[in-house]
Amino acid sequence: MSALFQFFLFLLTLNNLALLGMGRLRTLINLVTAQGILLGGLLLMHDHALLAVAVLLIKGGLLPWLLHRTRRQIGADPHIKPRLGFGLAVLTGLACLVFSLWLEGRLPMTPGLFPPLLLPAGLTTLFCGLLLVVGRATALSQVMGYLVAENGIFLLGIPLMTAGAVWFELTLLLDIFVAVFVMGIAINQCARMSLMPVSYTHLTLPTT
Predict the structure, then answer these.
(1) Which end of the chain is more exposed for a tag (fewer CB within 10 A), N or C?
(2) List of residues 6+ apart from 102 with CB closer than 8 A
């Protein structure tokens, strides 16, 4: 089980780097979906079955559906507009991974609290999410960066979970869902307003 757990963490790290180098919006959403599924698998291996089901339903189902739906409704450009170049973003992500591996050996922690590679994977996910937020120009890409950063925080909290903390994490997941839902509505409304034709029927010409 430990080897499988670390393999999932390795896939999660590769997923983060792929997110930073991805130039198509639809594929970016699919990668975020895959990350949610990987998180659900990690929770299942950590004996959090209830939370694993919630993560799979919300991060692997509801949120991707909402993002794809918003993408279609607003007619978003399929190509992502970066503020930070894709190659530079991937190199920055690798630097964050190296820093996280270095930090794992420097932080004073209770022995055995974090399984091997969990802390670097969580920190790298958090850093990569923040890179997506600041390094992408479109709102949908930034929303996904926010979700990835939350995934990193969530991953770091797995060893600290107790029976009572499960419900707190469920509440946090619902908050994320509501936040993205509201963002999707706002993006959709802004797009409709920008495409709405201007009516001049209410204007009257001055009389001479």
Answers:
(1) C
(2) none
